[in-house]
Amino acid sequence: MPTASLYQPDILGADYEQRILPQPADYEGAVQSTLVRRLPAKQYAQAVLYVHGFNDYFFQQEMAARYQQHGYDFYALDLRKYGRSLLPQQRPNNVRDLREYYADLDAALTIVQAEGHATILLSGHSTGGLVAALYAQDGRQRTAVTALFLNSPFLAMHQSWFNKRVGVPLAAALGWLVPGAKIPTNLSPEYGRSLHREHHGEWDYQLAWKPNQVFPVTAGWLRAIHGGHQRIRRGLSIAQPVLVLHSDQTVRTGGWSDEYFRADGVLNVRDIHTLAPRLGPRVTVKAIAGGMHDLVLSRPPVREVVYRELFAWLTTTLG
């Protein structure tokens, strides 16, 4: 069967198509992930595979276009239980071990390689950055990854000292006993409102897949994230070059303010800056002045800085 016939039209329109990647069933039943590619496909020998964050899915069309303008075929992966991959019987985001995502990445990387790409940049945002880093450390197809770009990776909880040291470990322990128990989140809806054009932002995306008030999480999910964060604190040994970009400041206000347009409204940037060097021996870390949590969704002048830093680093690192 020709490869092209495995792809179907995507919700983003004529420039995109998607391919469903069936996965073995889990504790919630049937599972799938979804690979999206930007057309025209297979123009270049190098490609990028993008992995979205928590409460998220791929919709960043400007980012995809920028990669193609710089000679990279563009692919994005909607992980299991997110976005295009979410099935009716599933709780959004619900995993019990971050290694569950490895099968999604295995399948996607196999296809990207089979479609003629010898050089692959693995890019992850927020939780996708955490998953990408762990995969680059011990995923089955990790040798297919040439370099990593992590956009505000989720390397630590943005919580009080007490919650980090006591609350999260206790809730993670609960996740071993009762993985389906719901855990309240304290993530503000203001970050989503700073992005979507129905509120204060400039972007249009499916609020059913990326709601302003984030999906509830389970104790099993929290246990999985806590385990990933513990590995980061201990340190990884990723062999590939890694670029980590993050905002230069964290939102400090409690309610809505314009600060969301120029700071990270989800994570503590000091955690990212401190922990990123522990990913491996070839890590470059830079703060982007005025960046939002998802740097490529920042205001236009800041986005230009992000892309300039990214493609300059890729030119220097990959040639």
From TrEMBL:
Coiled coil: none annotated. This is Alpha/beta hydrolase. Keywords: Hydrolase. The lineage of its organism: Bacteria, Pseudomonadati, Bacteroidota, Cytophagia, Cytophagales. It comes from Hymenobacter fastidiosus. It comes from the Bacteria. Residues 45-295 form the Serine aminopeptidase S33 domain. One of its GO terms (molecular function) is hydrolase activity. Gene3D superfamilies: alpha/beta hydrolase (3.40.50.1820). Pfam families: Hydrolase_4.
